[in-house]
Amino acid sequence: MHGMSTNEPTLSFGAMLMDTSRLLRKRFDQRLRFTGSTRAQWYAIFKISKAEGMKQAELAEALEVEPITLTRLLDRMEEGGWVIRQPDPNDRRARLLYLTDKAREALAPLRLLADDIYEEALASLDKAERAQLMHLLARVRTNLSKGDDHE
User: Fold this and answer.
1) pTM of the model
2) DSSP string, 22-54
3) What does the pLDDT look like over 45-79, one tens digit per residue?
4) What is the largest CA-CA distance in the chain?
5) What is the CA radius of gyration of the chain?
6) 140 Cβ contact list (under 8 Å, min separation 6)
């Protein structure tokens, strides 16, 4: 607490990151309401777009959700016409994921929406401060990921 006034509540590093993340998610939820889809669905669409034909299990891992949770999410997405699940020719139990044209067409406007939200979040930072913030967060992430393979 060096150099900070005691009447000023200070958030810990973890609380600051969590609170910032919560506000960012809240802003996405507010802006996505009109699409009739959830942030979880859009995140899944974005991940699938990076590797169409990925297995459901790979997506569950990438999204850090349980397979049953993902199955329910994909059920809703398939009903909504966003995603197609096809059997894996090499593994009868596995399903491969593909986006529909509807989902592909929605990606560009979604990226613009994300850019708007990020711009709003970073509005008071100049170019150098933005670069420094990203650099520092990348270093923190590297520090934490060093021991990640021991799980």
Assistant:
1) 0.75
2) HHHHHHHHHHHGGGT--HHHHHHHHHHHHSTTE
3) 999 999 999 999 999 999 999 999 999 999 999 99
4) 64
5) 19
6) none
Cβ count near 60 (within 10 Å): 19
Which segments within the chain are labelled E, that is strand?
54-55, 83-88, 91-99
Residues in the chain: 151
pLDDT, one tens digit per residue, over 10-49 is 779 999 999 999 999 999 989 888 777 788 899 999 999 9
Which three-class secondary structure state does DSSP give residue 147? coil
**C-alpha angle 94/95/100, rounded to 5°?**
170
- The letter for the amino acid at 100 is T
